[in-house]
Amino acid sequence: MSRNIIAEGKTTTEAIENGLKQLNVSKNMVDIKVIDEEKKSFFSILTPRVVKVQLTVKEDKETYAIKENKRKANENEEEIKEEIEKIKIFLKEFIDKQPIKEIEWEVKQNGFDIEININGGNEISYLIGYRGETLNALQTVISSIINKEHSEKIRVHVDINGYRQKRIKTLEDLALKVSKTVLRTGKSIALEPMTAYERKIIHSALQGNNKITTFSKGEEPYRKIIVDIKK
């Protein structure tokens, strides 16, 4: 593909658009120079106006895309580092206000995922709350703080004393137990209301069972899963 072309149009904009189509590139990938603009005169009033522009590709598309992706990645990395610093400041102030002083915490980053682990023994179980309600609220607060002005969506995962993994195991065991009961009795079972995150765990745990089906019913925050025999 030619990296330098002359394009024509009735207007400068039209000429540029015609050239971009021929090169199959976006406007920010080329240098543009108007080289000829035939204007109408009294003697050529019936002659169509023609504008000529020279378009020169700055770089080939692949090289440009690679550099652009690297540039965006570097910008995102800097932005995420800034957000992590905000998290650390928030956590320090939050933990310092707790009545329990033997609390440890760490922040890890993996791309746009930020993991926050807090540990402090059974004494800080109040930060987890009933079925993780307080923990989920803390996660929501931190997410809203860092995503308020960020161009990309950063996913925040907060865990306390490994509660998340324990809860996953509990829900998977529950799903298995309920599915056996449904198969034995032939009657569907409605589980207690759960968060979208917990419902997904139940769905995933039973999706490989070709005799059982699961679906959600109701409105948040009372939405629950129904476990039934697959028709």
Task: Give your account of this protein's structure.
The protein is α+β, with helices and mostly antiparallel strands. The protein folds into 3 domains: 4-58, no CATH class; 65-161, 2-Layer Sandwich (GMP Synthetase, Chain A, domain 3), CATH 3.30.300; 165-229, 2-Layer Sandwich (Ribosomal Protein S8, Chain: A, domain 1). It is 42% helix and 25% strand. It has 5 helices and 9 strands. The chain has helices at residues 12-23, 61-96, 133-147, 163-185, 196-206; strands spanning 4-9, 30-38, 50-57, 104-110, 113-119, 155-160, 189-190, 212-217, 224-229. The strands form 3 sheets. The protein has a 3-stranded antiparallel beta sheet, covered by helices on one side. A 3-stranded mixed beta sheet has the order 4-5-6. Strands 7-9-8 form a 3-stranded antiparallel beta sheet. Strand 5, helix 3 and strand 6 form a beta-alpha-beta unit. Helix 4 crosses helix 5 (196-206). The longest helix has 36 residues, at 61-96. The two termini are 58 Å apart. The mean pLDDT is 85.
